[in-house]
Amino acid sequence: MVIGKLLRRNRILGAREAEIRTREREMLDRLASALDRFGGDVDPSDRKHFDQAREQLSGLFLLVIAGEFNSGKSSFINALIGERVLPEGVTPTTDRINVLKWGEEVTEELVEAYLLERTHPADLLRDLSIVDTPGTNAVLREHEELTRDFVPRSDLVLFVTSADRPFTESERGFLQQIRAWGKKIVFIVNKIDILSAESDRAQVLAFVKENGTALLGEAPLVLPVSAKMAMASRASGDEATFAASGFPAVDDYLLNTLDQQERIRLKLLNPLNVGLTLASKYKETAFERLKVLAEDVATLQNIDVQLAAFHQEMLKDFGPRLGRLDALLSEMEVRGLNFFDETIRIGKIRELMRSDDVRRAFERDVVGDTPAKIDEEVGRIIDWIVERNLKLWQDITSYIERRQISRHRDGMIGEVGAGFSYNRQALLGSIGSAAREVVSGYNREAEARKLAEEVRGGAGTTMIAGVGAIGLGTLVATVITGAAADITGILMATALAVTGLYIIPARRRQAKQEFAKKVADLRRQLNDGLTRQVHTAVGDSQEKVNESIAPYRRFVEVQQQQLNEARSELVIAEDALLRLKTELTT
C-alpha cells in the first residue's frame, strides 16, 4: 500500500528525538523509584500501566481502535488495512484485545489472558500496530474493562462511533474514564452512508465535535467514514466510491498529519502522560497521608504531654502527703525530747536502771500509735499512686477511642492501596486495645500489695537491712525504740559509775541531740525512700504507655520520612516531565 511506503520514510529517530527519549527514560526511572517508596500501597493496575507505557516507549506506534460494540470497529480496521483480517457482525465479535502486527504469514497467538496477537503481511503494519478492542456497553462488562485497561498503552486512540447513535451516554462515560491518561483521541463517525441528507451528516458531525470538545477541553478531529463502502471500493478499485467513503481523509491524516515526526511525538508523549497522571495522583496521595500523619503526630505529642503532666502532678500532689508523714515524726520528736527531759534526771537514777521499764515507757509515751499512723498514711499514698495510675490509663483509653473516630477518613486514600490505612489503624487500635486491657484487668488490691512491697523495700533498705514484709510504721518504731534503748543503756552505766550533778544533765543533752539526729535521719531516709518509689511508680507507668505506643510511633516516623522523600521525588519528577511535555508540544 502507498500508505505503508510513505509511513516508512525517515523511520530512524533523529538525534533530537533520541536525546529526548533518553532523558524521558531517566525521568521515568526516577518516577518509578518514587513510586517504590509507596511499597505495596501502589495500585497494581497503576504500576502495570506505568510499566507497560515505559516498555511501549521502544515499541512500534500503537494505534488503538475503541468504541461501542456494533459501531463498526472491526470493519474500519479491515477497510484501513484493505483486507478482511478481522471478523465482522451485528453482535459483539471481539471478546479480547486483538493486536495486529506485521508478519510474513497470517498467524495468531494468545500471549496473555484476553490478549491475542495477530500477524499479517500488510504494509501499514510495518510501522505501526493496530489494536482492536472489545466494544463498550456490551452485555459482558468485562469486555469494556479490557478496553479501558489497555488504553494507557496506546499512542493514539481512534474512537469509532456510529452515525445512527453518535456519542452515546455510554461512550461519554467511557471517554471520561480514559481521558485522565492524556491520550490523543480522534473521532471516527462510521456508517455515515446511512445518512443520505448532507444536513443530517453535518448535524451529526457537529454534535460529535461539540460533545468531544466539552469532554476533552479542545476541539477534536472528527472524520466521517463508511467502512463498508471503503472496503468494497478497495476490492473493486472504484475510486469514486472510495472517495465517497470518506477514507481519503483518513489516509490524509495518516500520511500527512500522523507523519513520522508526529508519531514520534505521540510515542514520546504516551509514557510521559501516563507518568504525569501517576505523579499527580501519588503526590496528592502523599500529601493526604502526610495530613493524616500530622494528626498522628499530634496524638503522640498529646500523649507525651499527658505523661509529662502526670509526672509533674504526681510530684506536686506528693508534697502535702509527705508533709503529713513529717508532721507525725515531728510530733513524735517533741514527745521524745520531753520524755528525756522528764526521765533523765538525778532524782530518777533508780528508774533509769530498770531499762525494760524505761523502754516500755518510751514506747508508750513517745512512740505510741505513730507506727500505725505512719502505716495508715503510707497506705493512703499507695492507694493514691494506684488510683492515679489507673486514671492515667483510663484517660489514654478515652483519648485513643476518640482519635479512632477519624477512621472513616482513611477511606479517602484506600483506593490506592490499603496497606497504609490498615497498618495505621491497626497500630492506633493496638494502643486503645492495650489501654483497655490494662484498665479492664486492673486489680487494685493486687497493684496496691505489689506497690506496698516495693515501697517498704525501697524505703526500708535505707534504714535497716532485711526489712521484709513489715510495715514502715513497725520499722520506724524499731529504729526509734532501739535508739532510746541505746541512750538509756549508756546513761544507766554512767549513773552506776559516777553520781554527780554535772554528769546527768550532760548525758540528757547528749541523749536529746542523738535522738533528734536519729529522727532527722529517719525523716530524710523515709522521705528519700518514698520519693524515689513515687518516681519509680510514675516511671513504670510512663514506660508501659510508651511501650504500648512504640510500634505506632515508629510507624508514624518511618511513614513521615518515606512520604516526604517520595513526595519530594514526585514533585521533581513531575516538574521534569512537564518541562519535557512543553518541549514536545511547542
Automatic annotation (TrEMBL):
One of its GO terms (biological process) is cell division. InterPro entries: GTP-bd, P-loop_NTPase, TRAFAC_Dynamin-like_GTPase. One of its GO terms (molecular function) is GTP binding. The keyword Membrane applies. The keyword Mitochondrion does not apply. The chain crosses the membrane at residues 459-481, 487-504. Residues 64-191 form the G domain. Keywords: Cell cycle, Cell division, Coiled coil, Membrane, Transmembrane, Transmembrane helix. Residues 556-583 form a coiled coil. PANTHER family: SARCALUMENIN, TRANSMEMBRANE GTPASE FZO. This is GTP-binding protein EngB required for normal cell division.
